[in-house]
Design brief:
Blueprint: H1 6-33, H2 41-71, H3 79-89
C-alpha cells in the first residue's frame, strides 16, 4: 500500500478548519450584509420615522372622528353637526357653501 504524500496529509488535516472558517465567514457576511444585518439598520430607522409620522397623522384623524361621533350622540346631539350632515345627505348644501355656526 502506498503512503500518502505530505501534501495529501496537509490537505486532509486542513479540511475541517477550512469548512469551519467558510461557515463562519458565511454567517459573518450575512450578519453585515443580510436582510437584518448591520447595513439594514439605517433603513429600519427611516421606516420607523415614517411609521411614527403615519401613526401621528392617523391619531389626529381618529381624534377628529371621535369628536364628530361625540357630537352626534343621540342623547345630546349638536344641532349644527346634525344640520350639516342632513344637508349633505339630502344634497341641499352646495359644494361652495360655507356653514357658519352661530354659537
Amino acid at each position: 500500500m502506498r503512503k500518502p504524500s505530505n501534501f495529501a496529509r496537509t490537505m486532509k488535516r486542513a479540511a475541517w478548519p477550512a469548512i469551519g472558517l467558510t461557515i463562519i465567514a458565511f454567517f459573518g457576511a450575512y450578519a453585515v450584509l443580510g436582510r437584518n444585518g448591520v447595513l439594514a439598520y439605517g433603513d429600519y430607522k427611516r421606516q420607523l420615522v415614517k411609521r411614527e409620522q403615519d401613526y401621528a397623522r392617523l391619531d389626529r384623524q381618529r381624534a377628529v372622528l371621535k369628536n364628530r361621533v361625540a357630537l352626534l350622540n343621540p342623547d345630546h346631539a349638536n344641532p349644527d353637526m346634525v344640520d350639516e350632515m342632513v344637508r349633505k345627505e339630502l344634497n341641499v348644501a352646495h359644494p361652495d357653501e360655507v356653514i357658519v355656526p352661530l354659537k
